[in-house]
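FIELD: query
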Amino acid sequence: MLYERGPESTAGIMLKITDTIAIEDWELTEQFIRASGPGGQNVNKVSSAVELRFEAERSPNLPGPVKTRLRRLAGRRWTKEGALVMSCDETRSQTRNREIVRERLADLIRKATVAPKRRVATRPTLGSKKRRLKAKKLRGEVKALRGQVGGEE
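FIELD: result
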C-alpha cells in the first residue's frame, strides 16, 4: 500500500493508485461496524469491520473514462449518488481490515485504468467455411439414416 503526503496546503495522506492517479483523504469515508465471524464474545463488543465509501463521481483525480469503467466494474457496490462502497470483515484487526479494503479499492481502480482493446472484425476463411459445410452435410446424413426402418411384412 503506497501512501503519500499531499501538498503542504493539505496535510492529508493520499492513497497512490498509479503514477498519475492518487486519491485524497477527503474522498474516502470509513465507518467501523461490528463484524460477524470469528472472535467469540469479543465480536459483540468490538467494531472491527470496515466500510469504505469512495466518492468516485465527485473525484477530481479520476478521468472520465476511468470513472465509467469503474462504475461497470463496481456493479452493485456503486450507489445512486456515485459513491463506491466496499467493506471488509475478514480479520479480527480493525487496522488490517482497513488496509485490505483500501488495497481492494486501489486494485479496482487500477483495473479501471486499463482501456479494453478494440476488437478487429475478421472474416472466416474459405477453408473454414468449406469445413463447416462438410461437417453439416455429414451430420445431416447421419440423422437421415435414423429414419423409420421399412419392414417387409
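FIELD: remark
The first strand starts at residue 3 and ends at 5.
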